[in-house]
Design goal:
The chain has 60 residues and is an alpha+beta fold. The chain has 2 helices and 4 strands.
């Protein structure tokens, strides 16, 4: 099961991931956060990670 992690130090709060994949990402205290630590199947999460300007999202 793929795991999603957002590095709070790298995140600049641009909300790109939340606009690409709102079912998985949300904003908390002006930073992105994953709603779940792991999901069954990656869909829009990879696009969100690839689009992040600071590479704050990791999928493993």
């Amino acid at each position: 099961m793929p795991k999603i992690k957002v590095d709070k130090e790298k995140c600049i709060g641009c909300q790109l991931c939340t606009s690409i994949c709102p079912k998985t990402f949300e904003m908390k205290d002006d930073k992105a956060a994953a709603k779940k630590a792991a999901i069954d199947k990656l869909t829009c999460e990879r696009e969100a990670a690839d689009s992040c300007p600071t590479e704050a999202i990791s999928l493993s």
